[in-house]
Design a protein that fits this description.
There is one protein chain. By secondary structure, this protein is of the alpha+beta class. The protein folds into four domains: 94 residues, Macroglobulin (MG2) domain (Immunoglobulin-like); 102 residues, Macroglobulin (MG2) domain (Immunoglobulin-like); 95 residues, Immunoglobulins (Immunoglobulin-like), CATH 2.60.40; 75 residues, no CATH class. The strands form six sheets. A five-stranded mixed β-sheet has the order 2-8-7-4-5, with no helix packed on it.
């Protein structure tokens, strides 16, 4: 067979690969052959999905290999590659056969359009034949790393498998293929379907531990501390963190355990509200961002010291006014009160005399005593008014 193919397709290079045709259908056999000078490996894949890999002996500077395309293999463009000290590859196209698309494969999950790295997803499908569940052990999918995986039966034609997206998984669209193959008394039948989901970066959570205060004096040194981890508390193997104060970026120092610190120095002229932005990034490009606003106010102590001499002068003036004016105000107030009291005493004395002489409503002893007291107080008031 090899000699005949070499005659048909001509002489091959030291390491080369060919096939008997470029287009196949499921259920057909690919005849692979080529030139070689040592032991080689022949691999078959479809857009990153592994299909087959086999070590092949090199005989008389050539090799040949047959591969039967199964119904559980994906349709599409396939790459046939031979690897030795060098490598060579070709592509062929594999189409569906009528029997290979007999069963209906319906995706139940994943339903989300985007899944971040680190997320756990469930790939679940229902396989039916004219509405009836199909029971088989041969239901397969391919993870992003290209490995073929068998789905487990759940019941009623439902099959599923779980997958946790690695933190370093390639970003972008992941085309999930599911194929099924079942051998019956009437023959072999299959089905195939695909669904897409976007793989995004894993969110890095940032907890701001310091500062607890949100207001500082201008020129202060602000202590900053954060904790960075993935959802669920998992710590990154390698992580860097930085701070942006609106103008400059500063690298934070790792303290271990996802803790990062920095003492942020500010200038005297930094007055107002500053937005402090924290960024944490792991070695795979997964990132988290968080921010706070800090108010920087002018320090009151330098202001007070600068106006202190003026305050002292003002106090001296006020004290001089106090000690000069206040006594005069007191004297003026006292003179008014004495004049008022003098009038009251004279009026009281007149009323007392009328009461004693006209009405006889008071005894002579009581009258003499009261009039003497009033005269004494009136004399004292007159003396104080003369001195004032």
């Amino acid at each position: 067979m090899l000699a005949l193919l070499l005659c048909l397709f001509g002489t091959v290079n030291a390491l080369s690969i060919e096939s008997n045709t470029g287009v196949y259908s499921k259920g057909e056999t690919i005849q692979i052959f080529g030139g070689c000078d040592a032991g080689i490996a022949v691999s078959i894949s479809s857009i990153g999905r592994e299909i087959s890999e086999e070590n092949v002996r090199c005989i008389n500077s050539g090799f040949d290999l047959n591969y039967l395309i199964g119904f559980s293999d994906p349709a599409g463009v396939w790459e046939l590659k031979v690897t030795g000290e060098t490598e060579d590859s070709i592509t062929v196209k594999v189409n569906q056969a009528r029997e290979s698309k007999f069963y209906l494969v319906t995706f139940l999950s994943p339903s989300a359009e985007t899944h971040p790295r680190g997320d756990e997803i469930n790939i679940s499908v229902r396989i039916t034949d004219t509405g009836k569940p199909v029971e088989t052990e041969n239901v397969f999918t391919w993870f992003p790393n290209g490995r073929k995986q068998r789905l487990s039966p759940v019941g009623e034609g439902v099959y599923s498998i779980g997958y946790k997206i690695p933190l370093d998984e390639k970003l972008g669209m992941w085309k999930i293929y599911v194929t099924v193959e079942k051998e019956t008394e009437q023959g072999i039948y299959g089905g195939e379907n695909s669904a897409g989901t976007e793989i995004g970066t894993a969110p890095v959570l940032i907890e701001i531990i310091e500062p607890k205060a949100r207001q500082f004096g201008a020129g202060s040194t602000v202590p900053l501390q954060i904790r960075a981890n993935y959802e669920g508390g998992e710590l990154p193997e390698q992580m860097t963190a930085s701070v942006n104060d609106g103008i400059n970026n500063f690298e934070m120092e790792s303290q271990g355990g996802g803790i990062f610190t920095l003492n942020l120095k500010t200038e005297i002229g930094d007055i107002g509200i500053k937005r402090i932005r924290f960024t944490a990034t792991d070695q795979y490009g997964n990132e988290g961002v968080s921010a706070i606003e800090i108010t920087f106010a002018e320090d009151i102590i330098p202001v007070v010291l600068s106006v202190l001499p003026y305050i002292a002068v003002a106090l001296v003036i006020l004290l001089g006014i106090y000690y000069r004016v206040l006594p005069k105000l007191r004297e003026r107030k006292s003179g008014k009160q004495l004049s008022k009291r003098r009038k009251e005493l004279k009026k009281e004395m007149e009323e007392l005399q009328k009461k004693y002489f006209n009405k006889g409503g008071i005894s002579k002893e009581s009258y003499d005593k009261k009039i003497a007291a009033m005269n004494s107080e009136l004399n004292e008031t007159e003396e104080k008014l003369k001195k004032g």
